[in-house]
Design goal:
Number of strands: 21
Shape: globular
Number of helices: 14
Number of domains: 3
CATH class of the largest domain: Alpha Beta
Strand content: 15-25%
Helix content: 25-40%
CATH architecture of the largest domain: 3-Layer(aba) Sandwich
Length: about 425
């Protein structure tokens, strides 16, 4: 019996490195890596060794006979028209070799304890002998995993267990609830900024201030400290502008009934508000066509399985105003609704003392090294923009830490 990967895949590619048959794709460097929700196992070459299941941090790799039929079919379909790859053919990517360099930085500050920061911490532990201080303004570890993943996806949140093991390492000093600006910069040889990009992008239409952004709504239903409840939810219809997985998460939460909400790990207040909202129908509005939709097939199927008769998918629809009557489109049509939610992507915010590109919402960098600020590095969404899932941060962090190590080596070389 072969193995299959489910839609809960975090795409951190740990399984790629341990597969003896090179059966898992797309691997880092291949087209499609980091753009979808899942990796896939080729049933034609899988030898049922279980190495992928042993290392998967979110239990997404399972024997095919214990996987959903749709997941098994999805894995097979990915390889249906692809050539069988030999086990020795590693394409454009090879597993990382961890050469520990003792002459590197002695003290490194990592700002942010979400996936980007924790993968960077892991790489620093593997590649250097440095003491690592990890800070986060939140009192909780996990960042996007804890407060961004929908509460009906508990398997994805299991990766927090990996992060907890990292902060217990004797060379890691975990300082939750700490503002990095309060720490003296001269105590550290390098700073890795992994602060993410959680600000919601704006539509730029009249009345938008009365809408609820993905940033605020997702933080609220995940119980992030300080997150405020949305304005009164008014049924029977809500409009969600956006065609990514976050938009689908919002729709799924709005349409979950009381029993489904009881099975989720959400605050009681959230459960009560959603269960009594009266919202029975959601219009998912895409400004582009279905071919440009950013949601993944598993996410769409999950939503339709929950509420196929209560979800309307609209494409090529451009909002022009939000009023008490509903959402006006550029065709003059008004979609009557009690609430508007916007989920059109996220962008980073400037970091004190570092350059910032407002058009891309990132800190300008070369392979993670901040332009014009020696000793400062970035990883995650603040480095590459708000794209790619949780596991993509692993490859991103590897590149940044290799750049940091190379700079330390150059600085330590004679005549440098």
């Amino acid at each position: 019996m072969t193995f299959a990967i489910s839609g809960d895949c975090c795409s951190d590619a740990s399984c790629v490195a341990v597969c003896p048959m090179n059966s898992i794709h797309p691997s880092p460097g291949e087209p499609g890596f980091g753009t979808g929700a899942s990796l896939f196992i080729d049933p034609r070459t899988c030898i049922d060794c279980g190495a992928c299941a042993d290392i998967c941090p979110v239990d997404a790799a399972k024997p095919a006979d214990r996987s959903a039929a749709a997941d098994v079919e999805r894995n097979a379909a990915y390889f249906a028209e692809r050539e069988v790859l030999e086990a020795t053919d590693l394409d454009s990517w090879e597993p990382v070799s961890y050469e520990v360099w003792g002459g590197g930085p002695r003290r490194v500050l990592v700002v942010g304890a979400g996936p980007a920061g924790m993968y960077a911490t892991r790489e620093l532990l593997l590649r250097t002998t440095a003491d690592i201080t990890v800070v986060d303004r939140s009192p909780d570890l996990g960042g996007l995993v804890r407060f961004g993943v929908a509460p009906d996806h508990p398997q994805t949140k299991q990766i927090i267990g990996t992060f907890e093991r990292l902060i217990r390492h004797p060379r890691v000093h975990w300082r939750p609830g700490t503002d990095a600006a309060t720490l003296p910069r001269d105590r550290y040889d390098a700073v890795v900024h992994a602060v993410g990009a959680r600000q919601s992008r704006r539509l730029g239409i009249p009345g938008e201030d009365a809408a609820c952004t993905a940033e605020d709504f997702v933080a609220w239903y995940n119980g992030r400290p300080g997150a405020a409840a949305p304005a009164a939810l008014v049924g029977p219809r809500a409009v969600v502008v956006g065609n990514g997985n976050v938009a689908l998460d919002i729709a799924r939460m709005l349409l979950s009934d009381e029993k489904q909400l009881r099975d989720m790990e959400v605050p009681r207040e959230v459960r009560q508000v959603l269960a009594t909202s009266g919202i029975k129908e959601v219009v998912l509005l895409g400004r582009r066509g279905p071919d440009q939709a950013a949601y993944t097939e598993p996410a769409l199927q999950e939503l339709l399985a929950l509420a196929d008769d209560r979800v309307e998918l609209r494409y090529h629809a451009r909002p022009t105003a939000w009023t008490s009557y509903g959402l006006t489109l550029d065709t003059s049509e008004v979609i009557a609704a009690g609430n508007l939610f916007t989920a059109i992507g996220f962008e980073g915010a400037p970091i004190d003392g570092l350059p910032f590109d407002p058009d891309r919402g990132i800190v300008p960098n070369v392979r993670g090294a901040v332009v014009g600020r020696p000793g400062h590095y970035v990883t995650g969404w603040i480095k590459r923009g708000a794209r790619g899932g949780i596991g993509v941060n692993k490859a991103c962090a590897q590149e940044t830490v290799m750049t940091l190590v190379s700079a330390s080596r150059a600085a330590a070389s004679p005549g440098s």
